[in-house]
Structures are given as C-alpha cells and as structure tokens.
Amino acid sequence: MKISYSPTHTSLMVGHRRQKYFLCVGLTVVVLVVLYYFYSGSSGRFGNLSVLSGNAGTNLPAGVSFLTTYDNSVKFDHEWLKKNCLQSFSQTEEIGNIGKLVDAWKNAPRRDCRELYKTFSDIYLVQDRSAPLVIPDTFAPKVLKWLGGKQELLKEAALQPITSVENLYSQESTVFNPLRAKRPGAGGGATEETKKFLAELIQSSAKECDFCNYKINTAKDPFESVESKYSLSVSNTFKVEKFHSLIIWRRHDPLKVNEEELLDSMETAQKWFLRAHQNDEEYTIPHIYWDILPRASASQVHPHLHVTLARDHYYARWAHFHMAAMKYAADHNGENYFSALNRIHSALGLSVQHGNASVLAYVTPAASYEIYLFSKTPCKDLFQLLYYSIAALRDDMELYAMSAGMVFPKLGPFTDESDLPTIIRLVYRGPAEARRADIDSLMLFGTVNVNVDPYVVIRSIKQSIAKRSA
C-alpha cells in the first residue's frame, strides 16, 4: 500500500519541531541566566538569595508609588562633613560631644550641609543634660576606688553629662554617660582569669561534644543536608520554626573560627536556605542567629549557627525595623531608610564601606559594642566585613562572648520593593566568666544605657579592616 504525505501535514510536523526547538532553547537560556547571576558578580561564590526573583510586589506604604532599594554608596563622609559643615566644632570625636556636633551642623551655611542635617534630624533626636550629685566625705573614698583612684573623675562625678540619642522611627533610644565608660573595666576585655576559664571550658566540653560526633548525636532534615570543607547542616532537635536547622563547624573551638571558615559557613547556610525553600516554597524569609559561648546563651560550646526560614512575615524584631522603614519611606517620597542610616553614620564618622557592604557603629546601640552591617544582597564583601568586625572584638579587644542576628532578602518568584536588605547585628555579651546578667530591668522595660563609645568601636573596626584585608 502506497502512503502519500500531504504537504500540509509536513509543514505542521516541521512547525511542531520548531516549537519544541525554540522551547528547549528558551529554557536553556533561562537556566544559564539563573546560574550566571547565582555564581558571578561581586558576590563571588555567594549568590544573591533572591536569584529566583521576578516581578516586584506591591506592598508599599500608602501614598508611595515607588520605594528605592538599599544603596551602599555614600556621597559625604566624615572628612567632608568636618571640612564643609563643622568649622565651628573643635571638640574631640566621642559620643558625649555629639550634641555639640549636631548644633554646629544645623547652623552650617552650605545648602548641602543643611540637607544632610535634615536627613539626620528627621530620624534622630539628640538631647544633653547634666546630673548633679552630692558625694559626702564619708562616701568619697569608695567612689574614688570605683573610679580607679583618679581625682579628676571624682570631680566629674559631681556634675555628670548625660547624652541621649533617640531614633524617631524605630523608637530605639540609648543613654550615654561618659563617666561610666571611664571606670576601670567598664569597656570589658579579658583578664588572666577569663583566659584560664575559657581554656578549661573549651577543653572539657570537647570530651562529650554532640557536634563533634554529629553523625550519631544530631537529627536530620527531611531533605539532603549540606556539607562543605569546614561546615555542615544538621536539623535542630527542638524547633522554633518548620525549617530550623544548625550549621556546625567541624572545628570545636569557637574562638578559632577564621575568615575562610566563616565564609564557608555562610555559603553552607545559603545553600540550606535554598533547599528548605525548594521543599516548601511558601517559606521565604532567611534568618541566621549565632551565640558564641554559654555567656551569650549558646547551648553548646562547639560553634554553630541557627538557620531558619520563616513564612509570611519577618520575626518581631526585624518586623519592627521593617515598619520603621515603611514609615520613613511614606514620609520621604519612597526613600530607603537603611540607605539614610548609612549616609548618616558615614557623615558622623561611624561607618566604613567595604566594597558592596557597610559596617556601622550604631548610634543607638542595644548593647555595648553593637554594630550593624548592611548590603543589598548577601555577598562576600559583607561576610568579610563581618569577620573583620568579629576579629576586632575577639582578637584585638579580647571580647569573646558575642551574639549576632542576620536577616536576608526574601526568596521566591516575586521580589518586593518593601523587603529588608541584608542586615547583620552583632553585640558583645559581657565577660565570659561573669555571673551577673548582661541585661537589667532598665534595658528590658525602659531604655538602654551603654558604657562603650561608638567612636571607640568604629576605630577598632577600621584598624581590623586595615590589618586583615591587606
């Protein structure tokens, strides 16, 4: 039987083949583009966690049609501010003089100085006041002892200058009393007792360490774990979230984590986020929490990170910042709140830029030595800057117990202009061997008193960057 082929059928078959061909080519291009953006760019091996992002969402403040994304660049630094806006200011750079600095700044004749001052004053309120004190002769010897035997400090105690700084959007507030910072030991730092305590703690905890024996003493996620040269993921046994795991280092000593090991753990965490998100795409908000040593509430001495993936909204503390950012954007034609914070801290001399990331010695710290780190997306610059900051505290200043919290841009097919950028907070938790808690009723229910000058913090971080990034 002879079979004939219709030209019409032939053209249809060719058309189907062309469609399949173009579909395959299109899918290949999409995959290559995703892989390119994940593995290339300034992030290096740290891909943008929003690599799957598509069209922007619409969760913008009322009356705002567009919200700018975080911009790490700063136009005016502290040297520019001093040269052009603070000619009448001759005080030393310390937080106790910030009120005088602000007074000089607001009266600067230049327009760009006044515009930058408005950015500051729209967010921050600085107030100075004096606290008089009468010290009886019978009590003076004890106070003098508290002040390290320095008579000049005893005289200062009679009329103590107090500076308060309040963030009008986030409602954060911190009180500084320079005299409290001048007491011996007020800034922390390790004693020989501290070092001996830590050496014994680290050595003894290694004997029955669950994380050193993670293959038999840890739980697993329902999806494949992530393993790398220096770190790996295990599931947290007692969870606070559907996706809640741990990134543990292979090294037991938490005070020996180096730059390469820290970068490695951050990469492991990002891979875990993507795997958890692929397991349930409704969970989109990545977090990391890190406590170093029992003093900072670490349940195990062995270094580890808590990683969680949240659904629907940020956890409460981050949500508070998100609300502040939305209110600021609504009041300032969509301007990015975190970009403004970076510009302000840079002008005050309390910020350092490192590539695509910035570190701030926060002007309203929640605890001593608190720093903030910002970047638009997670990147190598950010995590290097985190390491330089940790090294400044841990290795240079011998401050060992620390806590950190991190939040990252949302995962998923849709980005949102109102999303938080990448934010890291790092604080010192007090002497490792101390029995006294590092938080009191004033901090819990009132305001924060911090004894460490942010200018001291930023100088240490600058020195660390110069020493370790060379």
Automatic annotation (TrEMBL):
<protein>
    <recommendedName>
        <fullName>Galactose-1-phosphate uridylyltransferase</fullName>
    </recommendedName>
</protein>
<feature type="transmembrane region" description="Helical">
    <location>
        <begin position="21"/>
        <end position="39"/>
    </location>
</feature>
<dbReference type="InterPro" id="IPR036265">
    <property type="entry name" value="HIT-like_sf"/>
</dbReference>
<keyword id="KW-0472">Membrane</keyword>
<keyword id="KW-1133">Transmembrane helix</keyword>
<keyword id="KW-0812">Transmembrane</keyword>
